[in-house]
Amino acid sequence: MIHIVFGATAIASLKLSFGDKGHQVIGFPVDFSVGPISNIHTNNGLNHYFSWLESSFQTKWNYLEEDRKFYEQGLYELLEIKDGDKVTIWTCENAAEQIGLRICCFLLKGKQIELGLVNSFKAMHDYKKNKEYRLDIRHTGECNLKFLKLFYKNAIRPITNEMRSQFEHDGEVLLNSKSYFRIWRQGKIIHVPENIEDPLILECARRIHKEQNSRGSINATRLVGEVFGESPCTLSDAWIEYRVRSLIQSGQLIYEGDLKSMQNYKIKLID
């Protein structure tokens, strides 16, 4: 079996779960929900994407180089899939993994393969429906090894020809899109402005000020964590912090400290 999965944690977990069973795990460590993904299956598209990451996120370049290397390896292995292979794609109810699913289906177009799908969110929901408590997950990477093995055994659903055709179409559209931010809402990928969560960031800052009973500075990490928990979207802390710095640049927040790391600066609202 060939597994296709998105996100560094999920990649590592699937390799631990199935690597010793002779399964192949093809992983893509990038977050397809943010940044320019136009032609990200080509060298020019990758250059554009990783250049944007370097200039926008507070990420050390050596980490980006490693992510790019793993992405390129995943892309090579994906294109090497042959007719007759059995492939399981893992996804969840978030934009990054849903976009990954569609891009991979487009890149596999025309190959005579047996395609299956595991939606880890739905699989967890089904597993917990008769239990005492419900457990919702945001990413496949939140599943431990026990759940991954259980879901592989019980939760694979075939990708029908109709589904595959729609995923291929969606993937082609995504690889030609010019947006920089995409969310997953009511079963659809929606292209939205980069600043759509900025009002929530400002509201969280006001709330923290109120809780502190002061207009003193707020640790950037606390604000990012607050937004992460409040947002209905599945956002990374790197993206939220990118938007915090954008609000600083636009004059809606002020800061003290060193903007090179969110652990090293504080912010407050403009009086």
How does this model look, in words?
The protein has ten helices and ten strands. The chain is globular and about 65 Å long. The protein folds into two domains: 188 residues, no CATH class; 76 residues, Arc Repressor Mutant, subunit A (Orthogonal Bundle), CATH 1.10.10. The protein is an alpha/beta fold. The mean pLDDT is 90. α1 crosses α6, α4 packs across α7 and α9 packs across α10. Helices cover 48% and strands 16% of the residues. The longest helix has 19 residues.
Helix content: 40-55%
Query: For the report, how would you describe the main beta sheet?
Result: 5 strands, mixed
User: Whole-number radius of gyration?
Assistant: 20 Å
Beta-strand percent range: 15-25%
Strand order of the largest sheet: 2-1-3-4-5
Give the total of beta strands.
Answer: 10
Measure the end-to-end span.
59 Å
Shape, per Cα inertia axes = globular
Q: Count of DSSP helices? A: 10
Class by helix and strand content?
alpha/beta
Overall pLDDT score: 90
Order of helices and strands: EHEHHEHEHHEHEEHEHHEE
Whole-number total of structural domains: 2
Unreliable stretches: none
Give the SSE layout.
Layout lengths: L1 E5 L1 H11 L5 E5 L14 H14 L4 H19 L6 E6 L3 H13 L6 E6 H9 L16 H10 L2 E2 L2 H14 L7 E4 L2 E4 L6 H15 L5 E2 H11 L6 H13 L3 E5 L7 E5 L2
Put the structure in a nutshell.
With 271 residues, this protein is an alpha/beta fold. 48% of the residues lie in helices and 16% in strands.
Feature tags:
271 residues, alpha/beta, Arc Repressor Mutant, subunit A, five-stranded mixed sheet, three-stranded antiparallel sheet, 10 strands, 48% helix
